Amino acid sequence: MNEINVKAWDKTAKDYFTEVVSPFAKGVENPIYWYIEKKVDYSKRKSVIDIGTGIGNLLPFLSKEFKEVVALDISPKMIEKAKKNAGNLENVKLLVKDARDLKEFYNQFDVAVSVNSILLPEIKSIEKILLEIYNVLNDDGVFIGIFPSMDALLYRAVLEHEKAIEDGDDEKTALEKTLKAIDADKFDFVLGTFKYHDMVQKHYYKFELMYRLWKAGFKNIRMRKVFYPWEVYEDEDLLEFKGKPELWDWFIFAEKKV
Ligand SMILES: C[S@@+](CC[C@H](N)C(=O)[O-])C[C@H]1O[C@@H](n2cnc3c(N)ncnc32)[C@H](O)[C@@H]1O
Predict the structure, then answer these.
(1) Which atom of ligand 1 is nearest to the CA of 13?
(2) What domains are defined for the chain?
(3) Ligand 1 atom closest to Cα of residue 78
(4) Atom nearest to 20 CA in ligand 1
(5) Does residue 197 have a pLDDT over 90?
(6) Among protein residues, the one whose CA lies closest to atom 26 of ligand 1
(7) Residue spans of beta strands (DSSP E) within the chain
(8) CA 67–ligand 1 middle distance (angstroms)
(9) What are the tens digits of pLDDT across the range 56-96?
(10) Residue nearest to atom 8 of ligand 1 (CA)
(11) Rounded (10°) angle between helices 206-216 and 123-136
């Protein structure tokens, strides 16, 4: 990862919940808890690795559910904050580390978790991280992840366009308003990337995420949506859509099964 991205994440660490729409925000039903409690056998809750832990939002829960927790992040400031949030948990080990090289952890974990942290835009980095996650798991380990959704952005475009037409705009004006509302100039719809502050971040189409997980070797891939209530966003305009299906990230549960 280049220096500028680490610095940008360091900056985000300061005021995390204002900067990031998170599955850990108040009012969001985060499926990770249910899947770990109900779908990961108790005998397979010895070790877990949280990749891109950020400020450590998941660590108190993981510390309760697993014997050993390793949590890593590329950003020293994020790890500093995570230490404040979870440093007193005895079974949690925190490390500053790039997820693109996890050799030292191969075949060691029952579960790997990654919540909106596989964001590097280059295909090679994405493939490498997914492969590293596959490799750190035991033969019957599982990967539980949340990924930013590109499909949700297109759904929002549909809502914005429909609204403009209903408000009486002609097709051309409605399209212009839609592109502005979704910040279309910051997205690349082929690469699935979004310009955010000093970073370019990856977002995932459902079919691409399925494909990439399959390519990394995962089996029995299950996918569902993590919905964000309209109130979670800073953007007050979005409240106009209240009552319609909400925007979402992708949740995945996948097995290594060797
Ligand atoms: C949006 S935050 C999510 C943090 C946390 N998982 C959560 O949901 O609260 C993304 C995190 O991924 C980390 N990250 C991004 N690329 C990384 C990489 N290659 N290796 C390790 N961490 C990375 C960033 O530093 C940042 O803390």
Answers:
(1) 27
(2) 3-148+204-231+246-255 (3.40.50.150)
(3) 27
(4) 1
(5) no
(6) 54
(7) 47-51, 68-73, 92-96, 109-115, 137-147, 187-188, 193-196, 199-202, 219-228, 247-255
(8) 23
(9) 999 999 999 999 999 999 999 999 999 998 878 999 999 99
(10) 115
(11) 50
